[in-house]
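Support request, please re-run this one:
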Amino acid sequence: MSARLPETRDTLVAALASPAAADRDRALDLIARAYRGPVVAIVSLRWTLAREDAEDLAHEFFATAVEKQWFHRFDASRGRFRAFLRGCLDDFVRSSRRDARRLKRGGEAQHIALDDAPSLVAPDELDRLFDRQWARSVLGLALERLRAECEASGKAVAWRLYERYDLTDAPDDSRPTYASLAAESGEPVTQVTNHLAWARRRMREHVLETVRALTGDEAEFRDEVRALTGEAP
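Re-run finished. Output below.
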C-alpha cells in the first residue's frame, strides 16, 4: 500500500471538503490506514472476536463510513477526530447488533456474533488500547514515508543505519555501536553520525506531517503531537 500522504499542509477537514476527488480519496485512505489497527484491537477485545472476524467488522465499518460519508461530518470545534471516529464505531457496532438480532429472530444466520453481555473490559482500558494502537499506526505510517524518501533520494545507507541502530529491538549491551556500524557500512563514524541525525530529523518531520493530515485544526494537531511525543510540535 502506498505511503503517500496529502502533499499540502491542509487539515483533515480541508482534505475531506476538497473539491478534488483525489484529495478526498487520499484523506479517506489515510484514515483507514491509520485507524484500522485501533478499530480491530478494540472490537477484538470488547467482544472477544477472533482476529479474522474483527478484521471483517473493521472492513465493514470503514466501507460503511465511506459510503455514508460519516467522516465528512467531523467538526474540529467539537473535539478530536479520534473521539469522533470512536463515536462512529460505537454507533456502527450498535446498529450491527440490532441487525444481527433481527436476522436471528428471522431465522437467518448471524455474520458476526455481537452479544448483549456487558463488557468485561473497563472503558479506560479500551481507551488506552485504542490510543496505543493509534500511536503505533502513526509511527508506522511515518516510517513508511521515511523509507520511501530514502529509497527515492539515494539515502539507502541512512535508512539501513537508522533501521539497525534505532529500530532494532535489542538489549543495550547488544546494540551496535557507531564504530561497528561504520565498519559494516564502510562509512566513517562522522558520516554515520550525520546519517542518523538526518534520519531522526526526517522521521520527526514525517510524524508531524502524518499527525497534521489526521487532525482537524491547529489546536488538535498540537494536542495530538503532545500526546504522541510528549513535546510541543
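The two ends are 28 Å apart (CA to CA). Confidence is low (pLDDT under 50) at residues 1-8.
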